[in-house]
Design goal:
about 130 residues, mainly alpha, Arc Repressor Mutant, subunit A, about 10% strand
Length: about 130
């Protein structure tokens, strides 16, 4: 039996949310992290990705599948179900993602300060 994904796997203050390096869509990197330790059902992915609507999660999974990063397997058993898992190409993203997350962690305060400064300046521009 595999371990369930922790609900707080992606805290809102997680460095991965500050990583400026993106591929796919906003949620692709988080989905790949969820699949790092093996296949998962959609309902399992929903636990740590609770901020993602089911529609957007489905779109993201389809996009990752189209790009060859995720494999979707349908099990037509007594209780049919679908599982998603990383392909070898998808697995190859784990190392660069770890480097990007480490970079974001190292520059956490600078990134937050830059965002806050930008947001404050944008608010002043719109108000003035």
């Amino acid at each position: 039996m595999r371990q369930p994904l922790p609900a707080d796997m992606f805290d809102e203050l997680c460095p991965s949310s500050l990583t400026p390096i993106r591929f796919g869509d906003k949620w692709a990197a988080l989905i790949i992290r969820c699949l790092e330790h093996g296949p998962r059902r959609f309902s399992e992915l929903r636990v740590p990705l609770r901020r993602v609507t089911p529609k957007v999660l489905t779109q993201s999974l389809r996009s990752l599948e189209r790009d060859g990063l995720v494999k979707r397997t349908v099990y037509a058993e007594l209780a049919p179900h679908v599982e998603y898992e990383l392909t070898p190409v998808g697995r190859s993203m784990l190392e660069p993602m770890a480097v990007a997350c480490a970079w974001a962690e190292q520059h956490w305060n600078e990134l937050l300060d830059a965002r806050e400064s930008y947001d404050n300046a944008t608010r002043l521009d719109r108000a003035g």
